[in-house]
Write a structure and sequence with these properties.
Structural class: alpha+beta
Largest sheet: 3 strands, antiparallel
Order of helices and strands: EEHEEEHH
Number of helices: 3
Length: about 120
């Protein structure tokens, strides 16, 4: 019932030091959303799934900001670790309870795209 989130590295150009989705990345031409998610999961968190079907598609949406437009597919995964965080990408990571997430919405703690993502998961500011 808790969500593992990552705090973006202070070296990131966009939203440095803000809490964000546990894994995120761009899918190059020819790669499926599922392949990209599995690749990013390994790159960012050091997680190699024993069974790729553990990764469950949840929803798709379009994200637009002054910097980028993204077609996003969100997956859910139940995973208790271990994790090996990519230091250039992630300053820290931890599990958040739904109550902690709810209390932090709209307070500048999360990236704007995570705030939108959380609405798709049933949270509201």
């Amino acid at each position: 019932g808790h969500f593992f989130l990552q705090k973006r590295s202070l070296q990131k150009k966009i939203q440095p030091g803000k809490w964000d989705t546990s894994v995120g990345g761009h899918v190059p031409s020819g790669e499926s959303y599922e392949e990209g998610a599995l690749r990013e999961l390994e790159e960012e968190l050091g997680v190699v799934l024993p069974d790729p079907t553990l990764l469950k598609p949840h929803h798709d949406f379009r994200w637009e900001s002054p910097f980028e437009t993204e077609h996003t597919r969100t997956f859910l995964l139940e995973w208790n670790g271990p994790f090996r965080l990519h230091p250039a990408e992630i300053a820290e990571g931890r599990y958040w309870s739904p109550q902690e997430i709810q209390a932090s919405l709209g307070r500048g703690v999360f990236t704007p795209n995570l705030e939108l993502e959380l609405k798709h998961l049933g949270f509201s500011a």
